[in-house]
Amino acid sequence: MSTYYQILGVSKFAEASEIKRAFRQKAKDLHPDVNNNFGAQVQFQRINEAYQVLKDPMKRRMYDARLVSGFPVQPVYYRPSGKVKYRARGDKYAHYATRSKAEIRLEAMEKYIDLGLLVFMSCTGIFSIFYGLYRLFINPVEYINPFSGLINGSIIFGTIIVFLLYRKKHTKD
Predict the structure, then answer these.
(1) Which of 47, 69, 91 lies at the terminal end of a domain, its last residue?
(2) What does 65-89 look like in DSSP terms, one character per residue?
(3) What is residue 33's DSSP assignment?
(4) Is residue 105 scored above 80 in pLDDT?
(5) Same domain, 61 and 110
(6) What is the overall mean pLDDT for the chain?
(7) Which residue range(s) make up the domain with 144?
């Protein structure tokens, strides 16, 4: 089985412009509107698949890694992160709406992560302050400094307040 580089007739170290030029040249001869042979249609699909992989730097790196490992015939699928508009049954490619619609899911996930971190830091700050107060007034131990818990809790709460004020200020703009 020939590699994508052999299908397009370029070297492994070819630049994007060379790959594009080779694809266009082969596509002119093998396009179904120009050439009605069944073999030409299959070859056009193969050069199109080769071009789709080699023009994208991420897919090309994945393909080159598979060439080195000995699995060049395994198809390379790359799906950018984001919201999937639709996916046909058995289709490994994801079809997306516009980029702004694709990022909606990521923005929601970022909000949940921020909220989770905020809750975690708040609990940590509250625990630190209560532990410091407990060791200071209720059960003082000779070798444990109660002020470290109070100071750490105050720093954590200060960080949370600064974060919330900064975020509130910059989300309104």
Answers:
(1) 69
(2) HHHHHT-TTSPP----SS---B--T
(3) T
(4) no
(5) no
(6) 78
(7) 102-172
- Judge whether 157 lies within some domain: yes
Cα-based distances in Å from 67 to 5, 35, 91:
11, 31, 24
23 pLDDT more than 90: yes
In the structure encoding, which two tokens stand for residue 54, read together? 């080699």
Q: Give me the sign of the Cα torsion angle 25, 31, 33, 37.
A: positive
Give the whole-number percent of the chain exceeding pLDDT 70.
76
pLDDT score recorded for residue 78: 47
- pLDDT over 70 (residue 81): no
Secondary structure class of 95 (helix, strand, coil): strand
CATH of the domain at 55: 1.10.287.110
Answer with the residue of higher pLDDT: 169 or 9. Answer: 9
Per this entry, what is the length of the chain?
173
Q: Evaluate if residue 135 carries a pLDDT over 70.
A: yes
The answer to whether the beta carbons of residues 129 and 161 sit under 8 Å apart is no
The number of distinct structural domains making up the chain is 2
The CA distance from 121 to 17, in Å, is 50
Is 20 within a domain? yes
130 vs 109 pLDDT, higher one: 130
Helix (H, G, I), strand (E, B) or coil at 156: helix
Whose structure tokens read 């052999």?
A: 6
Q: Where are the alpha helices (DSSP H) in the chain?
A: 4-8, 16-30, 38-55, 57-69, 99-102, 104-133, 147-172
